[in-house]
Amino acid sequence: MAENGGIEAGLHLVAVPIGAARDITLRALDLIAGADVLAAEDTRALRRLMEIHGVSLGDRPLLAYHDHNGAAVRPRLLAALREGRSVAYMSEAGTPLIADPGFQLGVEARAEGIAVRAAPGASAVLAALCVAGLPTDRFLFCGFLPVKSAARRAALREVSEVPATLVLYESPKRTAATLRDATEVMGDREAALCRELTKRFEEVRRGTLAALAEGCEADPPRGEVVLVIDRAAPREADEETLRAALETALAAGSLKSAVKDVSETFSVSRNLVYDLALKMKDGG
Q: Residue 119: beta bridge partners?
């Protein structure tokens, strides 16, 4: 906040609830109530949220800003920012820029030296990780996968060996097909289907990818879907395999980073991998 009690000039990316209206921060309400200009992916959703929390729009502008009109509306928002005004942007739900529009607005604002601030809050990614029952120490957000099966499988192959829990968004109509493709590409890993998080009909289905796919065919999910997929099982690591992996990793980076990457990929002691890397460097 500015010293005068107003909102600091600049672009404020404000997280809003993904379901329960009370899942909003006090800071987010302050920004929505005080910003000079409001922009939202869905102005009707923002108006409803403001009504619930008793926040008045007054005579301030409220602009729709989404994927389809960004090129036309972005100049108006940037002009307000250049004038030293505060602009608060809200996606339809959750945190702006997490599979939502707003990225290009932030890029262009920063390029002009305009302050860009985040007011964190609700996120379907983090909510799903909390309830999925899968490891959370390392995760990769994959966003929305391609619609067509061939492209979707290619995208899944790209991340199938990443040593991290995978989180992705999916349309309820394509969830069963995505789970089938994931089973074919990744094998029958443990996974969770999380839908309508924080809403009245919240549901978490846990099981293998194949079992979840079968369940979706029998009982198709409805509403917003987040899929959480367990990481790949550690690969067997004989010395020949480790040497090949180290050669690739050393060609791409430092000894330290190569040892770290290989030891984590194969769940092998760093000391063992380090000793092998030194032996390889000495021609052994």
A: 14
